[in-house]
Amino acid sequence: MIFTLWVLIILAILSVIISRRASTDVRLAKYEADSIKGTYFAKAGVMKMLVELTKDKNGYDSLDEDWNRGKDNPKELTLKNDTVLYGASDEAARLNLNHCTIDNLKNLGLEDDIANNILKYRTDHNKDFEFMEELFLVEAMTREVYNTIKDLVTIYRGDEVKVNINTASSDVLMAVVGDPVLVQAIVDYRNNDDMFTNTSDISMIQGLDPAMFNWESNIFRIWAEAVLADDTDATKTAEAIVDRTSGKIYHWRED
User: Fold this and answer.
1) What is the DSSP string of 58-96?
2) Mean pLDDT to the nearest integer, 7-33
3) Which has fewest Cβ within 10 Å: 62, 104, 128, 165?
4) Does the residue 198 lie in any domain?
5) Is 158 left (phi over 0), alpha (psi -120 to 50) or beta?
């Protein structure tokens, strides 16, 4: 009798252990499935934004266009009960770190030693920056300086040195122009609901060199975030820097 009771107790314990293990395996399998689903949904958001960008053929790009969406005002794509949030920003609104001058960097607000070290790093290594975090290999670069400039510069625009006069921030415009009066004139023109759409428009601002700017962009930074209705822990994001004309992807990151 005692032996039988012990056997029953042991079987009960084993049953509980196996049940918990099976339950854990089921949860892990569901999380993995949801994670994969979220990743592909985020990729779908990036592709959806790219398609929308290719349909934008008005001859200029500006901040008041529908593609210009950050995470505070995203576009939405609904897939059954799940949601994909997505948007884009203009990569031509950033200063090209691989093809800029010492004056550009100083006008951006960098101290002389950091500005010189960035150019020296490019020269010493005889190559362009290949990823943003490579900036931490520059002598005297700190996390504070990096955080200050990371949203103002790019390394993904090839040899293109011009910035988009319609989308560049005041800080980037200052880096290019170096004259606060001219920067304010550009901002005032844009605030009057006018867009620069050709060289003549830029030439209207006396002292502004049209050769420093363009008004239409090809390379965009696209972001997407998949939010699954039944598993918010499986939220996935994707970011891509893409040429909307050729479809070439310069950078891709998933989280």
Assistant:
1) SS---TTSTTB--TTS-EEEEETTEEEEEEEEEGGGSEE
2) 55
3) 128
4) yes
5) left
How many structural domains does the chain have? 1
Residue 212 lies in a domain: yes
22 pLDDT band, cuts 50/70/90, is very low
Between 17 and 162, whose confidence is greater?
Answer: 162
Q: Do the domain assignments include residue 131?
A: no
Continuous H helices in the chain = 2-54, 102-107, 112-125, 143-149, 170-177, 180-191, 199-203
pLDDT, one tens digit per residue, over 141-155 is: 999 999 999 999 999
Residues 31-39: contacts with CB under 8 Å, at least 24 apart: 31/231, 31/233, 31/234, 34/228, 34/230, 34/231, 34/234, 35/234, 35/236, 37/82, 37/226, 37/228, 37/234, 38/226, 38/228, 38/234, 38/235, 38/236, 39/226, 39/236, 39/238, 39/254
- 109: alpha, beta or left, given left = phi > 0 and alpha = psi -120 to 50? left
Q: Residues with Cβ < 8 Å from 78, sequence gap 6 or more?
A: 84
> What digits encode the pLDDT tens for the residues 197-227?
999 999 999 999 999 999 999 999 999 999 8
Give the model confidence (pLDDT) of 238-250 as tens digits: 999 999 999 999 9
Residue 145 domain-assigned (yes or no): no
Angle between helices 170-177 and 180-191 (to 10 degrees): 140
Higher pLDDT, 116 or 21: 116
For 230, the domain range is: 1-108+152-255
